[in-house]
Amino acid sequence: MPRQNVKGRFSVAIDYSACGNCGACVAVCPENVLHLGPIRLESTDTDCTGCKFCIITCPADALELRHER
What is the pLDDT of residues 36-54, one digit of tens each? Predict the structure, then answer.
């Protein structure tokens, strides 16, 4: 059975009051969804597959995975 494409069915919510812009989440994201922008962390949710690597890695617990229905 073919796997369904899950890209874009998830999004990463960022708590900017907790995020320290350390880049740990950026380093582990296999889809390059997270980027250190000029001012703060940014996300490109259209490519998120919901792997949760960023959630697990974040030392500030500043990220939350949301499932888009």
Answer: 999 999 998 788 999 999 9
- List C-alpha distances in Å: 62 to 1, 4, 48, 51: 36, 29, 17, 16
- Tell me, rounded to whole angstroms, the distance of Cα 36 from its chain centroid: 12
- SS3 for the chain is CCCCCCCCCEEEEECCCCCCCCCHHHHHCCCCCEEECCCCEEECHHHCCCCCHHHHHCCCCCEEEEECC
pTM for the whole thing? 0.83
Query: Is the predicted pLDDT of residue 57 greater than 50, yes or no?
Result: yes
User: Average pLDDT over the chain, rounded to whole?
Assistant: 89
Which residues lie closer than 8 Å to 27 by C-beta, 6 or more apart?
57
